[in-house]
Write a structure and sequence with these properties.
The structure is a single chain. It is built from 17 helices and 14 strands. It is of the alpha+beta class and about 425 residues long. It has a single domain, classed as Cytochrome P450 (Cytochrome p450). The strands form 5 sheets. The protein has a 5-stranded mixed sheet. Strands 4-14-11 form a 3-stranded antiparallel sheet. Strands 5-6 form a two-stranded antiparallel sheet. Helix 6 runs antiparallel to helix 8 and helix 6 packs parallel to helix 16. Belongs to the cytochrome P450 family.
């Protein structure tokens, strides 16, 4: 469907807008002629500002003095009037409490601390890709990608293997993005079950600490005070919220994109591009988190207009990552793109805590695909998620062409394969 000339008729709160339209012309028009666009109110929800240029998105991400995340940081919570975890969960906390909590968590997120986790990401990804390629056909979303981020976060948090499937299913309901028909009550119940689950795990780790993030949080202090159980539980959950679906959607998008760009797949296969460079372009191209948002705490001026204190401001990564002022030929998928300072992980004080981990996951996936498969084709209709925040696929039927030599070498390396 094409986009009407009047941009104010495009409803960014409605997930169907993203499913049914090609929004390229819309974003181009906003970037060129309306860099500060007032999105009209929809139903009972208030209107909000739409920021589409890369430079503005960066500047506003950075500005946590005049803009706050404590009234919500995505459209759903901003329009509903706030986030119940504000001031306690990292992403919706500002000022000194945010800095203190982030400093505690950063200890667990340094590349060095993450080494055992990233080693397991590579093992797990290789195993899943080898199994899928050997089977020939699979749903790449549910058979492969779905099992990587949740296992990674579970490794990080120290969630026992037996509980992981249960958590994954709860999380799918909690985000309510896979199914259009799912009720808000189901999502709320699932979120509460996740919080209850972590409550128990925190109590266990307080009593008997191990090497995981829950133990770290349970035994850290801020200004001499231990973190409350509630803060720990909410922040465990925030790692799942932040790290599961975003990474999963990036990997799934990579497979779909390569099937549409065989020349770029060949570059990857032939090792004519580094995995690092390919990872960055895959992340720019996918931009799984389309927007984040803030509320203004004071009046501020932008493009000769006033954003008033109390207004909702949305920052569109999906547009900023295609800004022709910053990216040459932004609508070209180019694994050798350099520079590639995409904004997929945000910017400034709330810059993604899991960016390194997200990159490792995508990097491991590209490495496994190029090693064990000579190519692949999409064999059925991809299934889109239903969301005004995240974009991507939750179903992608794929047929792989195996690299027999690489599979044989893998078997040899594995030792005991039948
Ligand atoms: C923050 C994207 C992976 C945990 C953010 C933000 C973005 C983002 C754009 C900024 C939010 C804001 O400014 O309001 C992504 C993408 C990922 C990814 C695209 C994967 C491709 C992860 C992973 C984890 C994680 C793997 C953890 C295991 C977080 C947390 C925050 C955050 C805790 C809040 C940081 C803060 O407020 O200080 N992410 N993320 N993310 N992300 Fe990620």
């Amino acid at each position: 469907m094409s986009i009407p000339d009047d941009v104010s008729t495009v409803d960014l709160t409605d997930p169907r807008t993203f499913e049914e339209n090609d929004l390229r012309a819309y974003w181009r028009q906003l970037r060129t002629t309306r860099p500060l666009h007032w999105h009209p109110p929809t139903g009972d929800a208030p209107g909000f500002w739409v920021i589409s240029r890369y430079a503005d998105v960066m500047a506003l991400y950075k500005d946590n003095k005049r803009l706050t995340s404590e009234k919500g940081n995505v459209l759903v919570t901003l329009l509903a009037g706030g986030d119940s975890a504000a001031g306690r969960m990292l992403a919706v906390t500002d000022g000194a409490p945010h800095r203190n909590l982030r400093n505690v968590l950063l200890k667990a997120f340094s590349p060095q601390a993450l080494k055992p986790i990233t080693d397991r990401v590579r093992e797990n990804t290789t195993r899943l890709v080898v199994e899928a390629v050997r089977r020939g056909e699979c749903d790449f979303a549910t058979d492969v990608a779905e099992h990587i981020p949740m296992n990674t976060i579970s490794d990080l948090l120290g969630v026992p293997t037996a509980d992981r499937e249960f958590l994954l299913n709860l999380n799918k309901s909690a985000l309510s993005s896979n199914e259009e028909g799912q009720s808000a009550t189901d999502a709320w119940l699932a979120r509460n079950e996740i919080l209850l689950y972590f409550n128990e795990l925190v109590a266990e780790r307080r009593a008997k600490p191990t090497e995981d993030v829950i133990s770290l949080l349970a035994n850290s202090t801020v200004n001499g005070e231990p973190l409350s159980e509630e803060v720990i539980v909410l922040n465990c959950y925030s790692l799942i919220l932040g790290g599961d679906e975003t990474s999963r959607l990036s990997m799934i998008d990579a497979v779909r994109t390569f099937s549409e760009h065989p020349d770029q797949w060949q570059l990857l296969r032939d090792r004519e591009v580094t995995l690092e460079s390919a990872t960055e372009e895959v992340l720019r191209w996918a931009t799984p988190a389309m927007h984040f948002g803030r509320r203004a705490v004071t009046d501020l001026e932008l493009h000769d207009q006033v954003i008033a204190a109390g207004d909702i401001v949305t920052l569109w990564n999906s547009s900023a990552n295609r800004d022709e002022e910053v990216f040459a030929d932004p609508y070209v998928f180019d694994l050798n793109r350099s520079p590639n300072k995409h904004i997929t992980f945000g910017y400034g004080p709330h810059f993604c805590l899991g960016a390194y981990l997200g990159r490792v996951e995508v990097n491991a996936m590209l490495d496994a695909l190029r090693t064990y498969s000579t190519g692949f084709e999409i064999t059925g209709e991809p299934q889109r998620i239903h969301s005004n925040f995240l974009t991507g696929l939750c179903g992608l039927p794929v047929r792989f062409q195996p690299d027999e030599a690489a599979l044989a070498a893998h078997d040899g390396g594995d030792g005991a394969r039948a």
